[in-house]
Amino acid sequence: MIVEFVELVLATRPDINAKEKEASNTPLHSAASAGNTTVRKLLLDRGASIDLPNVTNHTALHLAVLEDHLETAKLLLDHKFSPKKPALFESPVLHYAANEGKSELIAPLIEAGADPEARNSHGDRALHFAARKGHTDFVEQLFTAVPNLDPNSQDVDGKTALHSAAIAGHLEAVRLLQDRGAQQEIPESSKNLAIHYAAWDGHVEVIEQLVSDDNTNVRGYNGRTLLSIIALRGHNNRTLWLLRKTCYARVGR
């Protein structure tokens, strides 16, 4: 029924790219957001512009990824939509796919011209977004698609993807990044290593994964060592046990 209504309206030759007042969405934005395959195809066949931004600078492709309508996203890419077009904070669509863990979109986006090394206004790349959310499948497939991807690229604050994973306590992402060459000795602009962030929030498994003779006494923000941070934060018994195991035991070596 809805197809008949849409065809009836389209027969009157309306402005197919007319934008709403508040959100500035076009009909294609709305169809992409709702995942309405039939209406979306009708609009595209009638010449709807696929790269118009709404008030938040999102295109129909951004909305399709955000709303988990992968078939819609792939159809838009088939219509030669440029995946390089940025939205909020200058983030291209690949960043949105990384943030949502949509690894199925890596290949079609890169094939359509997406740059896996592209940065947003904060210097984040797709790898930062996926690591921050713990989307290990996305991280793995991104490295598979781009074998020479730099695992140690830093954002404007000096944080690497390893920092991002450690901050959020994503152990498997930390392990995967290390397997791909991520270096835990890289400090960010406040001099904190990834392990310092893990210690600050009590991510015990991540601390166990990262701790070594080389970083136990490294001073981060305000000159704090790993021992200082754990003592300051006063985490649970398991963290304190780790503190004794990894720090005190080293004194007797």
UniProtKB/TrEMBL annotation:
Chain positions of ANK repeats: 23-55, 56-79, 94-121, 122-154, 157-189
SMART domains reported in the protein's UniProt record: ANK (SM00248)
Keyword Repeat: yes
Keyword Transit peptide listed: no
Keywords: ANK repeat, Repeat
Pfam families, per database record: Ank, Ank_2
InterPro entries with a match to the protein in the record: Ankyrin_rpt (IPR002110), Ankyrin_rpt-contain_sf (IPR036770)
The protein's name: Receptor-interacting serine-threonine kinase 4
Record organism: Lepraria finkii
Native organism taxonomy: Eukaryota, Fungi, Dikarya, Ascomycota, Pezizomycotina
